[in-house]
Design a protein that fits this description.
By secondary structure, the chain is α/β, with parallel strands linked by helices. The protein has 15 helices and twelve strands.
Length: 489
């Protein structure tokens, strides 16, 4: 095996990440997956090693913020951080690669008939594989290929069939490029040109509200995460919040603070003193205890309603291999390194002063799970997403996280208010357009208004089940055809 065999798949796995934020070079996702499909299906050389190298580069670079989190916030050595990071990337790459390796054994390239069906079968395998990634390894719905189509004309599919439909389009174009690479150069150039159309930016214009149904203020404290739990720093955090709240307009109807900004729990006496110095119209993140269990929560101070985070971050809020890792890294010995999962069904927040207006509350990682967001929005008027993106440091993570939130706003046809500790906080309309934002590391207040939208999108009503059913049907038909060919002809 020559050096090219090792380097080429690694490069193609790597370049696919440049189609995600903050780079957003959209066509690269098509060529990245086209290379992978070509090597898996339309060639016969070293398929397994190429798949592994592509996957390791793709997930290794795309999830590179993991090493930032473990190293800086785990307060450990770079060697141990790198080891944990490598283990996680290997797990992600393995779960991603296993089903695709069986695709490489299907001998699709040897079947001259049913070419269109074979292309659809390839696409369907990738769709099913993407879906299963959401439910394995504690849920990692990151680097979903369909997310890259934000800010292109293809984002129009989000409110109808969700991000899964966008992924279907990505895999379809990639499969057509791969299939035509050697067999039909003219078609190869046509499909490649189609992928390059996605370089053309598309932005929905910001619609001026005919009615401003709610005025609000987003607080971005941007305090030092390394000092958060140091003795005496809590007072500085509180003082910073007081000063920022004082800058909000007197007539603001809702103030949003980010995820778990205070270094103590909702039940702590210090929290009782804190809320004496702030208005009641606040929704904020906080640690909270219930029956001796720790939760990452969102608190509505106006009525003491609590929402507990459903999707926890592995190696951040819970330790999958806690018995082996506790003591190895100091952060894993802290109480907040083992948070309990909230119930899947929790009642939405309410703004009583606005006539029982309901809000969809989502904390950090929750926003990445499309079905969780959809179900939370069935009766809500808008989305509040609080986050602590300090975990990402200065990596690509915050930009990816923001794009995920934007896609959720489009899918559910809802405005979204996002408050992050040190950015990126944003006001996002129902078209996914960023109306206003506070950049990473910026301290300040973001004031705005939004409009309640009562009309649910098609996706909000039915979810992404249609794409999964279609993919499953295609795979089922392919299996039946192959069985008939084998046993009847």
């Amino acid at each position: 095996m020559n050096l090219k065999t090792y380097v080429t798949p690694f490069i193609f796995g790597l370049i696919g990440i440049f189609s995600f934020a903050p780079y957003s070079i959209k066509p690269l996702i098509f060529f990245s997956y086209a290379y992978l499909i070509r090597e898996l299906v339309f060639t016969n050389n070293q398929r397994f090693i190429k798949l592994i190298l592509w996957s390791f580069a793709h997930w290794g670079f795309g999830m590179s913020w993991l090493i930032v989190s473990v190293y800086y916030y785990g307060e450990t050595t770079i060697l141990i951080s790198a080891l944990i990071y490598i283990i996680l990337v290997i797990l992600l790459s393995s779960v991603f690669s296993a089903p695709l390796y069986f695709l490489s054994l299907a001998q699709i390239q040897d079947q001259s008939k049913h070419k269109i069906l074979n292309i659809l079968a390839i696409v369907s395998v990738f769709i099913v594989n993407e879906w299963t990634m959401n439910y394995l390894l504690w849920g990692v719905p990151w680097l979903i290929s369909g997310l890259t189509l934000i800010d292109t004309f293809a984002q129009k599919v989000y409110p109808f069939l969700g991000v899964a439909a966008a992924s279907f389009l990505v895999y379809l174009i990639a499969a057509l490029i791969a299939a035509s690479y050697k067999s039909n150069k003219k078609l190869f150039y046509v499909y490649s040109a189609i992928s390059c159309i996605f370089l053309v930016p598309f932005n929905e214009p910001i619609k001026k509200n005919s009615t401003n149904d709610l005025s609000f203020s987003i607080i971005q404290p941007s305090t030092d995460p390394f000092l958060k739990y140091e003795y005496g720093y809590a007072e500085k955090i509180e003082d910073n919040i007081y000063k920022l709240i004082a800058k909000t307009p007197e007539d603001t109807e809702l103030i949003i603070l980010p995820e778990a900004e205070l270094p103590y729990s909702y039940q702590d006496n210090r929290f009782i003193n804190f809320r004496l110095n702030v208005p009641e119209n606040i929704i904020m993140g906080s640690w909270s205890f219930e029956k001796g269990k720790l939760f990452n929560s969102m608190i509505n101070l106006s009525n003491n309603h609590i929402y507990n985070k459903v999707h926890l971050v592995p190696f951040g809020e819970f330790i999958p291999f806690s018995e082996q890792l506790r003591g190895l890294i100091s952060f894993f010995d802290m109480p907040m390194s083992y948070v309990n999962k909230g119930n899947n069904t929790q009642t939405p927040f309410k703004l009583e002063k606005k006539g029982e207006i309901t809000i969809s509350p989502l904390i950090c990682f929750d926003i990445a799970f499309s079905e969780t967001v959809r179900k939370s929005n069935i009766s809500s008027k808008f989305i509040v997403n609080i986050s602590n993106d300090t975990w990402f440091g200065n990596s690509i993570g915050p930009y990816q996280h923001l794009d995920i939130a934007r896609v959720r706003a489009i899918e559910n046809n809802k405005w979204l208010i996002r408050s992050a500790n040190d950015g990126i906080s944003a006001i996002i309309d129902n078209n996914g357009t960023i109306v206003a934002k506070l950049s990473k590391g910026e301290r300040g207040v973001l004031n705005g208004t939004l409009q309640f939208i009562d009309e649910p999108s098609f996706y909000a009503k039915f979810g992404h089940g249609m794409i999964l059913i279609l993919s499953s049907l295609i795979l089922g038909i392919c299996v039946i055809i192959n069985l008939c060919r084998k046993y009847l002809f």
